Amino acid sequence: MNLKRRRFLTFLGAAAGSVALEPVLANNNKYALSLADETVTQASVKSLANLPSSLNFTPIQIPIPLDIDNHSPQEQISAYSSYEVKDDLVLPEEFTYDVIAAWGDRVGDSRFGYNNDYLSLIETAPNEGFLTINFEYISGQTWMETYPLVIGKELPFAEVKTQVQAEGKDGEIDAFTMLDSNPLKAQIKEISREGLIDQGMGVISVRRNSEGKWERTYADVDRRITGISGLDDPSQSLKCTGPAVATFTKQNKLGYDDGLGDRIIGTFQNCAGGTTPWGTVMSAEENFQDQVPEEVMADGSSFTPSAKRFILNEIEVDGRANVFGLAGNKYGWMVEVDPANPKDYGTKHTWLGRYRHEAFGIRAEAGKNLAVYSGCDRRGGHLYKFISAEPIKDPKDKANSRLLETGMLYGAKFNPDGTGEWIALNPQTLIDPVLPINVAGGMVTLPNSDREVGGKMDINQEFDLVRYKQQFKTLGDIYQGDSNQEKQGAILIDAHFAANAAGITCTARPEDTIVDRDGTLYIAFTSGSPGGDGGPDLRIFKGPDGETPYEYGWVMKLTEDNEDPSALTFRWSNLALGGEPAKGGAGFANPDNIEIDKSGNLWMVTDMSTSVQNKAVPIRTDNGQPLSGKDLSGIFGNNSIWFIPTTGDLAGEAYPFATGPMDCECTGPFFTQDWSTLFLSVQHPGEKHGIRQDMALEEREFELLTTDGQSFRQTRQVPLGSNWPNLTTNQPPRPAVVAIRRLDGKAIS
Question: Is the pTM value of this prediction over 0.90?
Fold first, then answer.
């Protein structure tokens, strides 16, 4: 391990050691729906003596050299001068996977949705249970290409695209204000309905057969909760709790009123999530702004649906809530569902806040207050904690759901010295805005100072903040309501912008939070690059040599003071750093979902954007300047799965367990109670190139670095598009859920 990384890792005060391991050729497990297989022989391992004792697999080879390789620089150049990317879920040779369900499969009276994400298995008996799945979004280009092949019917994409281009602007059109008699509105509604059906959540019953494979049982409890649940059948509407109910039901709103009171139509953009000790599943509505307006009025009421128009072009099919007139302030919440109750279509708990929800970490200990952690997955988003008003008696009592109905939401303020505090988001909270000078990109967004207009405003100069603080003293001055409950509801609805006004730390896209058995919170921060929404705090989110901004991400740990879930102060430190080993990183890029095994170690998946996966890097400079950030991301290949020890001398090291199919993201890892199966969602295969035609591929050139920084050239064979999971030539790619297991049936962890 190089010295830069030794300086960076402060976890438990120990630096990780190097591992003597010869590079291992990846196993090309081709498990189609028929589960046929084809195996590539794995290279011999020189020494496994320095591998963690809890590591129960042989690490696979990824496209770049790692610190765990026991190769000299010259041996690395020889071993990595060529690399073949596989359109498959590539696992160690002692593992296999079974496809459980894929997009378009029957679920109750509907179908398995698109881009499956978070998974939760509630085990009802040995070897059986309810598998709950999130369906995040649709990949417009590939969804349109493959929809008629998978679903078996046509949609009027071409006709609507032509008319929208002619009548709209940049492929956008306001279908909400169209007359119902307009044929174009009916066509937009048909496309939007199908797209929203493919989002939301699903519950399927599964069991493990005598061969050790998991399979579906198609029970009566199987059901879909879609983006339009409740639209046609009010009994399938979603419920809500907490202060925002007062906003939904109040009269004389400043903004749009959908006329539904506290009834909510559907859930969509469901990304990460979590499972409660009492057997319910929490689902995070993330990028809801793709379908509805995010900004709200001063009283928390929604902008008109016209503010987010229907979009149809070559790569997008979004704004699908526009034609149905859905109110934007009812999306962006955390949804709780009891998979065992076939009549439960979800409850949105508004005390947990409205923002681009990712992650759900829960700490439920008898005699203590409930703590729920989540993150806002945007550049400059925040880390949040909800603390219940009452303590827990029995963590497994389903009545604990009521604890989510009363409490307080807090945002994390990180200090550079490794300490931090939780700041309440309530009407009494003082205005102390985030300073643009401390944020990558130099911009923060605050609630618009013109409260009659509502929405947000971008701030780049400190003198603008001085005037803002003169105008508003507390959050209660910014938000309007006839009661404290209505003001509190408005704050929670506008949580991200309220948090910026309160001085809560802007972070590097917190994509997952998970709590270990000892109360330690782990957080995956995906990317430190700034963007149109803002950027992370430059004092906290640094690369191995203090560089900012830093693209490749961090895995952080947070411990509450006095080990108390309701503590308002904490300590934080970094466990693992993304990036190239030669530059001080662990070898992965952009950490996302994390799962904890029985030994307290992390299993982590990555979230590199589809556009950068395997993007050629023939030279590492541009006009004489070194490339950095996303310009180098292509070297990391496909998204991948990693094992990260959290204790001992090897804490923070990363060991590659798997790589995903082409253009995909591997999401939602979840272990069975006996640790013998790892459920995994494979999301958006073929998102960039669609159907792989006639096994097409191309060669790309990469300038790589050995672990000691020597430059060398790699020729990489990259498939164009995907045929996963069928793995048959010219077959459409389909997002799917798989069950990963050892061939010998033993525990993975």
Answer: yes
